[in-house]
Predict the structure.
Amino acid sequence: MEITRVRDELHMIGLEFGTAYLWRDAHGLTLVDTGIAGSADAIEQGIRATGQEPAALRRIVLTHHHEDHTGSAALLARRHCAQVVAHRLEAPVIRREQPPAPPVLSPFERQLWDGLPPIPPAEPCPVHREVEDGDVLDIGGGAVVVHVPGHTDGSIALHLPGPGVLFTGDLAANVGGRTTPGVFHTDPALALASFHRLAALPVETAVFGHGDPIAKDASAALRAAAEQHPQA
């Protein structure tokens, strides 16, 4: 587990597999994504390392249903009576009431996919609040839910216009100093369109499902990536 301070209110908790983000404000703590199953203790340790207590966890936002994002959500929600938030289309998969759609893989993505380590299945998790595009969460002065389908049907990003923060989920990545669209999408063309939507937002700080945060001038990096990956 590794803690990275992105800004005063925001820390990245790097896990053995996956990443969680901790947002702190006057309303308590919000966790965005939870890594794979078995990460709950490390996340709680990470929360304490920021000077906060896990008991202050009020909300868990899941950007999409993949096991490296939802794996520890059910356990953390139970331990801390936290509200779980996800898009309406993701909720049945997160609850394990509906099977997930498989990704459409390019030859390059197939090589990456085949090289991934086994990921433990996520425990079925309740979704207490199902959201839609444009809904606003009480985070950072108002976090706007941005429905960005394509990675999964109900993938979401969170845009905090006040502080200029964007949680991209897996629609974008920033690995090795290079910002790109993500991989392993169920609908690659739709995912690219969603990526262009994110790139058009006014953003100072962006954090990603995979890769390093961009603390300043994130809009420039996202726009440059969109220009390098035009829509058909």
User: Anything to note?
Assistant: The chain has seven helices and 14 strands. The chain has a mean pLDDT of 95.
